Amino acid sequence: MFRLLIGLGLPYLGVVGLLPWAASVERYVLGVPFIYGWIFLWFVLTSACLWLCWTLFDRHIVEDPA
Amino acid sequence: MATLIFAGFILLSVYLALRARGGRGPQSVHDFFVASRQFGAWLVFFLAAGEIYSIGTMVGFPGGIYAKGPTYGVWFLGYILLAYPVGYFLGPRIWDAGKRYNAITLPDLFKGHFRSRFLELVVAVTAIVFLLPWGQLQFTGLVAALKGLGWNFQPLWLICFSAMLAFVYIAIAGVRASAYIAVLKDVLMVAAIVVTGVAVAWEAGVTPVFQAASEHVSNAMSTQQLTFAMTTIVFQSLGMYVMPFGVQNFFTAKSAATIRRTQVAMPLYMLMYPFLVLASYYAISRNIELASPNEAFFAAVTQLLPSWLVGLVAAGAALSGLLVLAGICLALGPIVTRNILSGMPEHRQKASSKVVIVLYLLGSIVLTLLTPNLMLTLINMAYYGVTQFLPGVIAVVLRMRVRATAVAAGVLAGQGLALVLYYKNPDLGGVNLGLICLVVNVAVMTVLNVLLGGRRAHAMDPGVGALSPYKK
After folding, report:
1. Which InterPro entries match (chain A) (predicted)?
2. Are B70 and A33 in contact (CB < 8 Å)?
3. Which of B196, B366, B382, B424 is 20–30 Å from A27 (CA)?
4. Is B313 exposed, middle or buried (0-12, 13-18, 19+ CB in 10 A)?
5. Domain residue spans in chain B?
6. Which chain A residue shows the shortest CA-CA distance from B471?
7. What is the model's pTM?
8. B237, closest residue in chain A (CA to CA)
9. In angstroms, what separates the C-alpha of A16 from chain B's closest C-alpha?
């Protein structure tokens, strides 16, 4: 359950859930409109979430030998 | 000069295809289409990246931003990004089911689980119908890329040339050729995008480009645009990995862990997009006159880069289109020979698939010539139909006991409604019409399943399930 929350819940919350907020910010970060900067940030964060799932839960699953 | 470099890379790709075949005897059907399930993380990664970052990335995405502003940029990035978490959880289960039923194609999964000829046919036929726009998308992009080289032939010749190349790759070594070429294509594509982005930053600077562009397109999104972006991101991220070629890619993996590891790295690959966004906004900020929005990226390329680099960029773009075409063909061929024409012996499936592939390529060519479209509209079209397979796929991987008739009715209801809504074009307040259809699809499936008595699809083998490592 926790696994789904980290791997699936967090990225969806960040990218879809917070999109209205991100779109309303009228700042530029590093020369880029905030909305783009926000999505770019989630490229790294999503990867981090999945990496956490992998290290915490899935790395130790023994493959079905059949 | 550009043409020379371009031709060099294309020749290199054909050489790689030949190498991919190297030293093997005659290829079996399974090896030809899913590499006998032997690929490790690297090849699965490149193969998947090869097919996800189609020519839509270099041509369609900048074109969409150019024509419609940030709404299109945001949903395009968002949906691909969120598809990876979906793939992380769904992919290993699809792989598992594929092994259980010895599947090559997406309809094979349905056949194995539901044992219903009707459902198998529904999935097979509609998969092909909704993949026609995907092929059309590649051809439209290829024409834009080849024009960027300064080739002023009729689009028909450019398209036929592309179709021929795609066919050559497949005919040489099937999915193994695709995987090898994918490595070359990804290196070229990333190099091309980064070089162009850096050139823009160098010549014009990041801040000035976005500020100049903001005088042409607003960075703010209306409520309607926001709703569209959010619902489309959700809908399409759910659909990406039920694309018939996406499912088939999972089948090439050596193990379920291989798939998980590729999904972890996938989002990082998207770090090329900032460069691409910059190049797209350059075309807007400079007010470059374009014959079509699809030429936005190449307008920036030809303005900023020396001729030999233009050749490299065009080769990267063309290979991405060709590879995706090859991928679709490798998915559609066996769908026809295994799932539609039943009872064909395995040794004839390979040769017959090649005939089907030629027919599919011809069909896409005709569509491309008859109905030119903004590329991102074509992406939407394919997803409306294909995502409707998702409830069925979930039933398969979770071994749910759902009636085949209910699943088939759900798929048909979802897809039928999608077509109606697409052509009637009613005001949905920005909500992605496919998402509505998906909800209807699930509702129809559930209601019908209850009405029919909700009996099991077929007797299941409890022994295997108990051993599954995914039982938690």
Report:
1. DUF3311
2. yes
3. B196
4. buried
5. 1-390
6. A61
7. 0.84
8. A12
9. 6
